[in-house]
Design a protein that fits this description.
Elements (H helix, E strand, L loop, with lengths): L22 E6 L2 E9 L6 E7 L20 H5 L2 H14 L5 E5 L5 H20 L11 E5 L3 H13 L6 E4 L16 E6 L11 H12 E8 L2 E10 L1 H4 L4 H4 L18 E2 L5 E3 L9 E2 L4 E7 L8 E8 L4 E3 L1 E9 L7 E3 L22 E5 L5 E3 L4 E8 L4 E7 H5 L13 E2 L2 H7 L2 H15 L6 E4 L4 H10 L4 E4 L6 H10 L10 E3 L17 E5 L17 H8 L4 E8 L2 E10 L1 H6 L5 E2 L2 E2 L21 E4 L8 E2 L4 E7 L7 E8 L4 E13 L7 E2 L10 E12 L12 E9 L4 E8 L1
Parallel strand pairs: 4-5, 4-7, 5-6, 7-8, 10-22, 23-24, 23-26, 24-25, 26-27
Antiparallel strand pairs: 1-2, 2-3, 9-12, 9-13, 9-16, 11-18, 14-20, 15-19, 16-17, 16-18, 20-21, 28-32, 28-33, 28-35, 29-30, 31-37, 34-38, 35-36, 35-37, 38-39
Organism: Morus notabilis
GO molecular function: histone methyltransferase activity; protein-arginine N-methyltransferase activity
Pfam families: PRMT_C
Amino acid sequence: MPSWIPPPSQTLFSSLPRFAAAIRTMSSGSTQRVFQLRHDPLTGNSEWVVIEEDEDEDEHAQPNSPLLATTSYLDMLNDSPRNRAFRQAIDKAITSPSHVLDIGAGTGLLSMMAARAMGSAAASTRDHSNTNSNRQWNAMVTACESYLPMLKLMKKVLRHNAMEKAVHVINKRSDELRVGVDIPSRADVLVSEILDSELLGEGLIPTLQHAHDMLLVENPVTIPYKATAYGQLVESTFLWRFHDLHNNEAQASDGLRLVPAGFNNILGVKSQQYALHCNAIENEINLLSEPFKIFEFDFWKRPDSYGENQLSIRATNNGQVHAVISWWVLQMDREGTLFYSTAPRWISMPTNKSDDDWCDHWKQCVWFVPGQGIPLAKDQKVHLSAFHDETRISYNLKTQSQVDHPMMHGFKGGDFQLELSPERVAIYGDGEWRTFISTVIGNALKGRVDPLCVVADDSVFLTLLVAHLSKTSSVISLFPGLRSKGARYLEAVADANGFSMDRVQVLEKKKTLSSMIDTHQKKVDLLIGEPFYSGTEGMLPWQKLRFWKERTMLGSLLSEDALIVPCKGLLKACAMSLPDLWNSRRCLDKIEGFDHSVVNTTLGACGELPAEQVGPYLPCSIWQSGKYKKLSNVFTIMEFDFSKPISPSTGKNQVEFVESGMCHGFALWIDWVMDSDNSMLLSTGPDKRYWKQGVKLLAKPVAVGIPGSTCLSKCCHAVVEASFEPSNGELFVRHVFS
């Protein structure tokens, strides 16, 4: 883990975090203690849980909670090209006794590689030198890891490989290390892998700055040697929909304007790069330029906190520039013979990766060009200004005419912007979705005079829609995540949408609806949600059953004929072939010669494990999960009835396979029944690219076939049953193949 931990950022589509939660570290005597924040998905509440340094020290002890099971550590350790590149570079660089510092050591893999390389170098020197018999070898490896659960895991790995005496482990951030206190001298060699998909987001720059200032010798050996960020201009209507709500909603027929004319910045996505597997949309991208170099960061010298690069880029095709796609290349050695790249597959790079080497911990990045983009003709030049600070890279793109004649845009609403995820912006700009929701809410409001409507989630769209469709309605929006930001947004766009804020109330922070006093002595006629809860886009689909929990808490305030929308949730499933995702989460054995089998349970690995130790449920977008194929029809496992208070639920179904192949697991999601006639169904399954699904990977892939096929060794059926526990929001799925 780096010396500096960045704040959590909103990511596009599926991404497993390197570390899973906020942490606070304290020391008590000789014992290290961590307080880790645990979130309750059904209430939105959080609590601090204590992790002691001496807990679960037994190599075979099972962790009390899967703190690391849904992080990207396992995927990273299964990235063979990455592991091979570091091993080759370390073996090449460490040829003499050295003090090696490993920052963000993780499981200690790079530290063990360095210790082994020094051992080989020492043996070789003793065998071939007549002058070194009395030489004192100043050789040591220091592994710095600040995250206590990972440090405990590293100690297990070191013991399992008989390397605990070869690597000195320190449970601190690297900017807390002191020469003469924590380490005896400045290090000669730095090995580190503190990179995210954007390159800088894990604190690469401040970590390197402090290391060069306080921890490393002058002109140290560093692995990697340097990193170079590259980019390419692209046209993609698909990507455009994820940020330009103003123009996307222009054709909407519902009369609403979430981004009214003159308020172009009032609602949108944060101006940043978003991680995305661009290979998945290769056929939806028109390349408009050759790749270009953006920034180069030398690990072997102190980096600057800020940088700027001015580029003139010639268009190679006609089109509309909607985005800049970027990636990076690591030069692992000083000579430039070893590389690792996160480039998309249409880019030819001198690396040891192939198209089959899929991984999820590093992707490409997408930066959206504001508005409708910039039109370009072939051979026309466009000016790109690239900037970086300590944690991110950003861009400004202009044509020559825009440079010569800059335009000033005056927008209402000041500097305020309600920031939503790219997926949510795309949903709100989708005409089909808006028409569907407008029909549902319009039907629910029919015949109701002066209705009181409660929006239970963070949907600004539903709040605007009710106020727009019913001029006599009163609306209370709970906005549990948006709160005052949602209220400020509504105040800004109310006039443009033809309603007065006198009819709309947003609950103040930490306030709840608990009595008729809060509803001004009125019963609730309509309780609605999408459901959508801001900041939870990376959670599992069934954790949106928070809506059911909210409905239960508001039960005493509902009128006798109150309508609840959605009225049901259906847990849906489909058997899937997911070879890339499964391989990225498979059990570890030897990694470049070091046994990592002791981490499998803690990291939630699937593979040759007992049934009770199978991996966790993973939130992900199926279309972003490498190669995939549906092996069964979609089937319903269980139903959640929101007309009743929340309660434990169970369900069971038998599925027949409709395709032959290797089944790696089941995709799981919620379809929302929006009316009592069961005629209005909103699906969030794998075919819907704006929503995430949950995936339950099998411990071991199963060969399946179509019933009646001649191959008797293949399973043709599976029985899947599930149970939902409302006390903690957990879903348990079991399956039997036959």
